[in-house]
């Protein structure tokens, strides 16, 4: 009973944090802040998937979290390279 | 309720607190470098604490994936933060402190636009 309340509150809180990261993404005065906010948003989503996986006792949420971590890293590096160097392979 | 389950829940709540501190740091820090500092440390340590909390479930399928995700995050997040901050420095994003120590190498000084 209390465990379910804790899990529900934690999931809601992580969604609130994702919205906070989205606000930072919209606010960020310069592109560097936006890239950092996007990176953190992906990280919070990974944490949310890990939490849901532990609560539901299903493993495929963890597979999704692993793939999302991989994709988030590649996306962050590509965005930063576009911003700093003008292209991902320069 | 076994003590190991209590430990898992305490670790999960601690992870949420650390992630929250990271996001608050992103709101409070005035420039990109401080934001990357707060987000990198807070986010990674929070997710790692959450993964350690899932280790207390004891299922080897969950444990294997958690170790994989944790190791991958430990390898990639410093690289991602470094790339973002380097790009910001190359584009000449200002630091909030007016008399900061500028340790940028010559190829990252402003004035040289990336071709």
**What Rg of chain B, in angstroms, do the CA atoms define?**
19 Å
- First-to-last CA distance of chain B: 62 Å
User: Mean of residue pLDDT of chain B?
Assistant: 86
Whole-angstrom Rg of chain A = 16 Å
What number of structural domains do the residues of chain A give?
1
Helix/strand-derived category of chain A reads: mainly alpha
The number of distinct structural domains of chain B comes to: 1
SSE-based structural type of chain B: mainly alpha
Share of residues in strands of chain B: under 5%
Largest sheet of chain A: none
State the assembly state of the protein chains.
Answer: heterodimer
Notable traits:
heterodimer, A: 90 residues, mainly alpha, 3 helices, B: 115 residues, 70% helix, 0% strand, elongated
What would you note in describing this structure?
The complex is a heterodimer of chains A (90) and B (115). With 90 residues, chain A is mostly helical. Helices cover 87% and strands 0% of the residues of chain A. Chain A is built from 3 helices and no strands. Chain A has helices spanning 2-27, 31-56, 60-85. The model of chain A has no long low-confidence stretch (mean pLDDT 89). The termini of chain B are far apart. Chain B has one domain (3-92). The model of chain B has no long low-confidence stretch (mean pLDDT 86).
How are the secondary structure elements laid out?
The complex is a heterodimer of chains A (90) and B (115).
Chain A: H1 2-27, H2 31-56, H3 60-85
Chain B: H1 3-28, H2 32-55, H3 60-90
Helix pairs in contact in B: 1-2, 2-3
Short structural summary:
The complex is a heterodimer of chains A (90) and B (115). Chain A is an all-alpha fold and 90 residues long.
